[in-house]
Amino acid sequence: MSGHSKWANIKRRKGAVDAERAKAFTKISREIIVAVQQGGPDPDGNFRLKLMIQKAKAANMPNDNINRCIQKAAGNGEGAKMDEIVYEGYGPHGTAILLEIMTDNRNRTASEIRYLFSRNGGNLGETGCVAWMFDRVGRIVIPMEGKDEDDVMMIALDGGAEDISFEDGSAEVITMPENLDEVRKALMAEGLEPSEVEVTRIPKNTVAIDDIEQARQILKLYDALDDYDDVQNAYSNFEISEEIMEQL
After folding, report:
1. pLDDT tens figures, 160-218
2. Where are the alpha helices (DSSP H) in the chain?
3. How many Cα atoms within 13 Å fall on the side-chain side of residue 179?
4. Domain ranges within the chain, ordered by starting residue
5. Is the fold of 10-74 the same as that of 134-203?
6. Distance of CA 121 to CAs 217, 225, 229, 232, Å?
7. CATH class, range 10-74
8. Which residues lie across from 55 on neighbouring strands?
9. Does domain 83-132+205-247 match CATH 3.40.640.10?
């Protein structure tokens, strides 16, 4: 498995301004609703819900908001039903894009996602057209301040991790999705508190973009899709150098 250290470049993070915070709360709320629909309202018996609650708290989402989402989903209240869909497509210059979507209106979302692709130089593809280019994995980030890399590596691997890398003062632990909770517990049992725990997708191979105009075209499409309300997560296999990103 490759490309872990490049993932921060591929999956760009936006600043925590008020508008972005509101958008983050909306997306987390949807994830909580789907988690409850699939596994029930008790986080002790629903690992996905437990992860979403941790994610909500890390984003400073008020407890009242979290509880309201859980109650709405558990009670099947109006507006609580959400469908989970994966859309796949192609971006400019040989790039692949995969979208994880939650929506209460499949027809509206399909039409608008297709429009965003076509308007920004891409094409919405058929199911399976690019999914094979990505590995679905569990990902755990451990702050490394005061910790020994060899010790953390041994704890992670003994706990069932598939791989581990170190960069920017953190350890990134990669697991099989179904082993994520087991590895998380093994790390925490040794005093290693994660700063991030998630199921995500990483590209098996990346497409290097070394032209600023090409990078601008790719990011225009990627950002348009990532900003769309129903898109929970947007993944792509492009790799843009820090030098070009700074110019942009």
Report:
1. 999 999 988 999 999 999 999 999 999 999 999 998 899 999 999 999 988 899 999 99
2. 7-10, 18-39, 47-58, 63-74, 106-119, 149-158, 180-189, 212-227, 242-247
3. 17
4. 10-74, 83-132+205-247, 134-203
5. no
6. 8, 12, 20, 21
7. mainly alpha
8. none
9. no
